[in-house]
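Co-fold these.
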Amino acid sequence: MKVILDSRQIERIVEDLAARIVSDVPAGSDIATIGVRSRGEVLAQRLSSRLAEKLGKDVPCGTLDITLYRDDLNSPQGAGQPQVRTTEIGFDIDGKVIILVDDVLHTGRSTRAAMDALIDLGRPMAVKLAVLVDRLGRELPIQADYAGYMCDAAADKLVQVRFVEPDGKDEVVIE
Amino acid sequence: MHSGLLIKNGRLIDPANGIDKKCDVSIVEGIIAEVREEIADSGRQGRNFTVIDAAGKLVVPGLIDIHVHFREPGDEEEETIASGSAAAVAAGFTSVVCMPNTNPVIENETDVEYVHRKARQARKTHVYTMGAITKGLEGVELAEMGFMAQAGAVGFTDDGCGVQDPAVMLRALKYATMFDVVIAEHCQDDRIAGKGVMNAGYQSTILGLPGIDSLAEEAMLWRDIQLIKKAKVRYHAQHISTGGSVELVRAAKNDGLPLTCEVAPHHLLLTEDCCGEYDTNFKVNPPLRGQEDVDALRQAVADGLVDALASDHAPHLQSEKELEFLAAPFGIASLECALGLYVKALIEPGILDWPALIHLMTEKPAKVIGIDKGTLGIGKQADVTIIDPNAEYKIDVSTFRSKSRNCPYHGWTVKGKVDKTIVGGEIRFEA
Amino acid sequence: MPITANILVKKKSKQLKWHRKHLLGLRELSAEEIGYILDTAVGFEQVSTRSVKKAPPLRGKVVVNLFFEDSTRTRNSFALAANRLSADIIEFTKKTSSVSKGETLLDTARNLEAMGIDIVVVRHNAGGASRFLSRNVNACVVNAGDGFCEHPTQGLLDVYTIRKIKGTLEGLKIAIVGDVAHSRVARSDMWAMTKLGAEVTFVGPPTLMPAQAERLPVKVSYCLDEVIEKVDVINMLRIQFERLGGNPFPSIREYSHYFGLTAERMKRAKGNILVMHPGPINRGLEIESEVADGRNSVILEQVTNGLAVRMAVLFLVNQAAAQRVD
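Predicted complex below.
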């Protein structure tokens, strides 16, 4: 197990992502973050509060459960049994700039599922993708708009993001 | 030209004559000629003379099953008199009694003669039949009991259902006193039983199936016992299944009433719990009851209250049993493994010894239906069964001679295998 | 800067692998399995509230509604659930009697299977019919009511509704009132509720109690007035005239007098009692309109929740089938 990001580095990346988003998004646009369960949810909440500080206004934050949209549901070699959780988005996404937040972007399949799930909820003005770790190994034509750390871990490795809230400490490790 | 058989070295059990010892039996021209401890075979080696060495085996009177369904006429795809007879001799039975609930119902002398003719053609076991008590088993008008008795019917029953109307049953019993016959009843009050398909109890509640309360059987048995106090005729309660029925039989016998009863192997071995997986091979009428009923029936056998063990062999097609439990027909096909089942139910737990079991399968049932069979007395027709009491085997429905496979005992290991079945001096089955 | 991730502070349901490709009854399920279905159903509630009321997990799958008994709401609820999961649905309705000759249940199911179906939702008048089917077809089988054996999705939506409002079933006192003998709902409710820790009392006349009810994990009472004051939930069963044999009570008037849920009787109930009914209601018979439509009634919530529960069930059995290696 190798720690590739510690808590200080993670904090800096989140701050950096927030700054890039603020400079990027046209002033006056309605912005909201939506995190992909479950680590993306924590990241989205942190981003949301940073954005709120910088923009001086409330930035709503929601959580998206993508289980029903996964593309491996009916394949016997699917990754174990997915548990359906709730999608909790307490605001209307129509017309908003949605920052879709995930912890790791790897194959792109989760992001594909997340976009499909999002579209079933309404019609945002734009969807931007923000991730903490951008890992090599894309299987779909998807790129992050805002990526924190570039990682070239071998295909057989597991890149794991941990946050204080569920895991007790902030860190990113390669296993 | 004389023909003959000499059965040597077996343990001869003939309860009617109080014999249980190593004995030889000689059969000449289909008749028991001699029963002695040692019969020499010298000088008998004629062309038509066979010596059977029965060492280590039981030599007993041919077994009798007074309750089978051979489905002919009407449902020959389920069983025929020929296939049923072949199954019977393979199971050691030299006499069986068919029930009249065929299609058409056995309700006149022609019907009775038809069964006899088919049996003669099959040339396996002696086949008797009961006739219907009421025309079409409808419980309304009496069937021609006199003509049927003359043609050889050994008793009357509406088996499959009971005679619901007490006035009709009283009339039947009274009328039957003219003849020396037995009136047999499938005790079930349909108004209590309703549309039940299994015992009314915990399992029927859990499985969500309509139940048949044990009262349905007991109420009718109680009624019939009152009726035979008025019309003294031999009365036989078929396949009793509950502890309550046992007590009714006990009391009636204590009162000296001319009542007999039989028990089926499934009621001695299986409980309603067997229906838990909706396996329709356990759907039978009267239904499988609780463990306390099984215990009471075994006790009744131990107490000598039971006059006959009878299989109630009820063959059905696989396609008929491959239905929802609610829709499937009642019945278990068990003739072909009956002996092994009785051994498991009665000998292995120490309730009966071999002579007592043989008694319940030979002389006692013969007396119930009033036929001169069930013993190895000198001069009697030579129906003999030779049993290997220690041979264990696995019940395998695919080997059945019966046409049907609706046997819930498939895969059971039982003891007591029929080695040879001799009917009228002829070896009709050899293992 | 305290951040609360909603789901992360919630108690996670124990990591359980759902392995059943059939849902035949609740009797054989563990409390954990029932909890898992309920937790899964929570995730499906939201699908029905958004603009596109559809999600793709059963895309390309075929569900057949095989109904041998009249039913409107259960059949529609399953159809809608299947639709919302993007499955294709075939309706197969056939009135049957157990004695009618012709194509058997098995024939029918095997014919449908030959067309390539994935899930059979079956309602039949014979107890055990769904279990019988599950042994004889390869498709997933979901019991939508079999005789008076079980109606598992109704049981699930009942406990789901109670859990949603009361938080838990642990320690709750629940009365199930009416024709218990012929009720599959009562049986499924009994299994689910008692497994989840509730105390269940069957209430009704002795003529409508099942055989050996004393061996069931419930109390039995013949007096609604004694029970009504003590319970947190009351489930009024529908009097099913088509199932009643003979004459189990002298008149509707007398039945309502002893076992009807009237406004008068409700006065003695706890203020927060939940009034449930599996529907369709016989107004004025087992329940007065005022009560059925009153503030304690959750009868319509039951219907709404039924959809989420059935979506969860279809999803789970399909998952179990998809991930089975055999």
